[in-house]
Write a structure and sequence with these properties.
The complex is a heterotrimer of chains A (139), B (124) and C (499). Chain B is mostly helical. Chain B contains 3 helices and no strands. Classes of the chains: A mainly alpha (139), B mainly alpha (124), C mainly alpha (499).
Chain lengths: 139, 124, 499
């Protein structure tokens, strides 16, 4: 689509949306946000790019086939769930690791829940883009 | 509030059923979208509307303090929204593809998989 | 907690991921075969463990029932998972011979694994909402498989399949919502006790009927079955086979589970309604089949008619009836998948599934003809094959309940089934091919022939084994039916087990 305003705005928006999507993913454990909404925001960035430029350009900017991203996301989610085997806990149990934790502080919390959420993020991101690119290409 | 939501559910269902009675597949699909939203209201109402705080447990506590909202219906509705979003997107893509291939979205004209016996050529 | 309950879900998921990533590589399909083999092994271990220890349950993610998601396997669930793995393995092997590379590249084998994951998940879950999620997993992958390839017939059938199944989904979901509203729980074992305390029994019966409609669409019961014969004959044969074998049976399984564990209050209303739906299903299915003139469409209508028998067993609600339903379920999955496989081989060498364009299979491919007779006679209920015992048990249960008309209809439908099978035999196998060609099995390249005939032979063998040695299978089904009618074990295991 040819529109100067949209093209100019997209340059800024794509980067902003991608950063915001990561932000939404990371804050999602205790606050509104999470993998699903993060994935949607991230996908919006590339959809916007595909509308202003072309689907081909959006695809080449993505480097990887979106359906592969989606399936890799499923894999990450499965691994995040299976990680609890190592601790002898049931499937999908969250395991936490507090890096650099000091007295009174939690340091940097890492968890299998985050891995699971990142998997959801990738699955939604890839899934939506696969569908939208397929629809865009046919019109 | 319950009454308002219940009435909304009823209206949504009525509109959805009207749309789904149409021969046009696209209208049928919009009907389904509305109906799935009506169902989300039903689940939401099923959990009772409680004007409480978000069901989050504070640091150091074992259970939430004070009155909190029922978290389960929210989780169910969220899951249902995600799933119906995926299904509707697929159905829309399928109907679009069907339109491009067969050339119609009128359900009574779609008889390729089940042709009428003997005069199957005439209606394709 | 027992990891055996998690394997049927995780193994297909990981296999699907690997298979999809390697879809451009021949290794992908072999990973798919290996993954399904692993599924079969672990499901047999699950079954062995259930036979040894009784009902087993596991709580996901460290949450106790009824708050978390419980996976649970009793005799019925365990045997359904095993039969899913067997059918899955047969289908994957058959696909090696049938599925063109074009479909493989768009991720066919991965979708098949996702379908298996959904089916296994639906069998082992102990939570009603989780059951809904597995239904959706199953549904979305079946949508993909059904229209993959995108021919005109497929899209036409696919639209009907998708639109009607979405309605059933929404019906299921609203039933779940209302049930949660009146009981406050969704754990099926917990619901068993919770529904007994509900005062508004009228509303409960309404919810029961909503579930009956929702699962009835999936299972293709009488007024709700129209999507099935409209779509099952359009996709590749392997897809028809696994759909015919497994998908409708998940609906039947869900009906059996829900109407024995939760809605056993107002039996006089719900089960009588189900009884007449079952009778109508049998009759309509078999009459529809008699009117058809295509190998796969005849078989599609027969799925409908056979579903009637299973639901009849459930609707009678006697120990013998449920025994028959469980036995019928297992027998029918094997037989029906096998018949579709044979239709696929016939299409491959004869060039069509239209009966008027087929012929000469008996003279030129006697092995195939012999292998057709086994499942066909079994479907019609000839002794000593598995279908005879299945029908015998159901009819006996109907006679014991003094439902003479119902038993009579069941027998008459069996007779009409013979008519349809004879029609296929008389058109596709007996006379010469209308175009004078000689359809031989040796026309198919060796590898593909092996891949297509191996599942057919193996499933036919299984049919014979069940038919000739029914004793252990009937005893097994008896225990399963006992657990269904008296779910004390199921409930105490689910609610008592610590993560």
């Amino acid at each position: 689509m040819q529109s100067l305003i949209l093209t100019t705005a997209t340059r800024l928006l794509v980067a902003l949306l991608l950063v915001f999507s990561i932000y939404a993913l990371l804050r999602g454990h205790n606050l509104p946000g999470g993998g699903f909404i993060g994935g949607l925001i991230g996908a919006t960035a590339f959809i916007l790019y595909a509308i202003t430029a072309t689907v081909e350009e959006a695809k080449s900017a993505l480097l990887v086939d979106p359906s592969n991203i989606a399936v890799a996301g499923l894999g990450f989610a499965a691994i995040g769930g299976l990680a609890s085997v190592l601790a002898g806990k049931p499937f999908l149990t969250g395991l936490w690791l507090f890096l650099f934790a000091e007295e009174g502080g939690k340091g940097m919390p890492l968890s299998t829940v985050l891995l699971f959420d990142a998997g959801v993020y990738l699955a939604v991101f890839g899934g939506i883009l696969t569908l939208v690119f397929a629809l865009e290409e046919e019109t | 509030m319950e009454l308002l939501l219940a009435v909304t559910t009823g209206i949504l269902t009525a509109v959805a059923v009207y749309l789904m009675l149409s021969k046009n597949l696209l209208r049928y699909l919009w009907g389904l979208v509305l109906l799935s939203n009506a169902v989300n209201f039903v689940i939401f109402l099923g959990g009772r509307l409680t004007p409480g705080a978000p069901p989050l447990i504070d640091e150091g506590e074992y259970a939430p303090v004070g009155e909190v909202a029922n978290a389960l219906p929210q989780a169910l509705v969220l899951t249902a929204i995600v799933i119906s979003f995926g299904l509707m997107a697929f159905a829309l893509a399928l109907i679009y593809r069907t339109y491009m291939t067969i050339g119609t979205v009128t359900s009574t004209e779609m008889r390729i998989a089940e042709p009428r016996p003997r005069k199957s050529e005439s209606d394709e | 907690m027992s990891w055996l309950l998690v394997y049927p879900i995780v193994i297909p998921l990981l296999t699907a991921v690997l298979t999809y990533i390697l879809r451009h590589n021949p290794a992908g399909r072999w990973i798919s075969v290996a993954g399904t083999l692993a599924l079969l092994l672990t499901s047999v271990m699950l079954l062995a463990s259930v036979i040894r220890e009784g009902v087993i349950a596991a709580q996901m993610s460290d949450w106790n029932a009824p708050f978390g998601i419980t996976l649970v396997a009793d005799y019925l669930s365990a045997v359904m998972v095993v039969i899913t793995a067997i059918t899955g393995l047969a289908t994957v092997v058959y696909c090696l011979g049938e599925i063109p590379e074009r479909l493989e590249r768009s991720g066919f084998f991965a979708l098949l694994q996702v379908l298996l994951m959904g089916v296994c998940g639906a069998f082992v879950t102990g939570d009603l909402f989780n059951l809904y999620v597995w239904f959706e997993v199953m549904l979305i992958s079946s949508f993909g498989l059904l229209v993959m390839g995108g021919s005109r017939e497929q899209l036409d059938g696919g639209v009907k399949y998708v639109t009607l199944n979405l309605v059933s989904t929404i019906m299921f979901l609203s039933g779940v919502g209302i049930l949660y509203g009146i009981t406050g729980t969704l754990n099926m074992a917990d619901l068993h006790a919770a529904v007994r305390e509900v005062e508004n029994t009228g509303l409960l019966t309404t919810v029961a009927v909503m579930f009956l409609v929702a699962f009835g669409v999936k299972a293709a019961l009488f007024p709700l079955f129209f999507w099935l014969p409209a779509s099952y004959h359009t996709p590749p044969v392997a897809v028809s086979a696994i759909f015919a074998g497994l998908l409708t049976k998940v609906g039947v399984y869900a009906l059996i589970r829900v109407f024995t564990l939760i809605f056993d209050q107002d039996v006089g209303y719900t089960h009588t309604l189900m009884l007449w739906m079952a009778v109508a299903t049998m009759v309509m299915g078999v009459l529809g089949a008699a009117a058809m003139n295509d190998f796969r469409r005849i078989l599609s209508f027969h799925i409908v008619s056979q579903i009637g028998y299973m639901i009849l067993g459930l609707a009678l609600f006697t120990p013998l009836g449920l025994l028959g339903a469980v036995f019928y379920l297992v027998h029918h999955i094997i037989v029906k998948a096998n018949l579709f496989f044979i239709a696929g081989v016939a299409k491959r060498i004869g060039g069509s599934t239209d009966l008027s364009k087929l012929g000469g299979l008996y003279a030129n491919a006697p092995v195939l003809a012999f292998l057709f007779l086994i499942p066909a006679f079994s479907l019609a209920g000839f002794p000593p094959l598995s279908g005879f015992w299945a029908k015998f048990l159901i009819v006996k249960a109907a006679l014991d309940a003094q439902m003479w008309i119902v038993a009579g209809v069941a027998l008459a439908v069996g007779l009409l089934t013979v008519f349809s099978m004879t029609k296929i035999w008389g058109a596709a196998f007996w006379p010469d091919h209308p175009e004078g060609t000689k359809p031989r099995l040796s026309d198919i390249p060796v590898f593909e022939r092996l891949a297509m005939m191996l599942p057919v032979g193996a499933l036919a063998l299984l049919t014979c084994v069940i038919g000739l040695f029914p004793e252990p299978f009937v005893t097994f089904a008896e225990t399963a039916a006992g657990q269904l009618l008296d779910p004390t074990d199921y409930i105490s295991t689910v609610l008592g087990v610590q993560p």
